[in-house]
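Work Package 4 report. The design task specified in the project plan requires that, given a folded chain encoded as structure tokens, an amino acid be chosen for each position. We show below one input record used in the internal validation round.
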């Protein structure tokens, strides 16, 4: 799971009922145990162990990976990364996590929470734009990218500023090759509520939106 290696087991744990199960059943059980119902927020890894932690950590059945080297080496650990949604609130936390794991090719679903955007701190937006443009290299097999603006309008960003930022983000990720991009929280009011969920037109702001406040998401994506 981590970039450093875990020694091979010296004790085969043959007395364990779980170890005695067929490998296929072990993998099915671990697939359920390693998958959370909610996003894993700002995950981080402990450089000296197999621990996966985060600010908001849904229950994960990874205790055996931390205590049994045989299971760490034998079971299929890919669901831990391939079947969970990883949500990041800062560029530093995203990049730190990616550098510490050796399974970035298995991360398929990534969410960026833009709760820290601030019109008085444009460097935060610029950092995110640079990062979004390089996700194809840092997370090469990414299939779904979620853009989370649920913190708006509580965050200090105007509707126009939010619209420009979203437009720039979509331009940066247009060539990533992901299968799906979802945008949540950037739309408020009855204007967007009248649109079908699959509509390519995406209102940014509230009921006072004008023509420049509508993003044709499909035009920005391949």
């Amino acid at each position: 799971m981590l970039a450093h290696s875990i020694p091979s087991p010296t004790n085969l744990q043959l007395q364990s009922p779980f170890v005695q199960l067929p490998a296929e059943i072990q993998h099915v059980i671990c697939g359920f145990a390693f998958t959370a119902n909610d996003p894993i927020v700002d995950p981080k890894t402990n450089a000296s162990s197999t621990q996966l932690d985060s600010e908001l950590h849904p229950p994960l059945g990874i205790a055996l990976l931390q205590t049994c080297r045989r299971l760490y080496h034998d079971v299929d650990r890919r669901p831990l990364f391939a079947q969970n949604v990883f949500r990041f609130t800062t560029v530093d936390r995203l990049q730190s996590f990616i550098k510490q794991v050796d399974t970035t090719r298995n991360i398929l679903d990534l969410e960026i929470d833009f709760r820290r955007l601030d019109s008085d701190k444009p460097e935060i937006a610029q950092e995110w734009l640079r990062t979004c443009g390089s996700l194809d290299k840092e997370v090469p097999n990414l299939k779904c990218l979620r853009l989370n603006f649920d913190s708006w309008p509580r965050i200090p960003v105007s509707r126009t500023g939010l619209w420009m930022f979203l437009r720039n983000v979509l331009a940066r990720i247009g060539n990533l090759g992901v299968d799906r991009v979802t945008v949540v929280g950037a739309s408020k009011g009855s204007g967007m509520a009248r649109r079908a969920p699959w509509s390519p037109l995406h209102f940014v702001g509230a009921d006072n939106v004008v023509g420049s406040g509508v993003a044709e998401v499909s035009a920005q994506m391949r």
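Residues 47-51, 197-201, 205-222 have pLDDT under 50 and may be disordered. Validation will be extended to a larger panel in the next phase.
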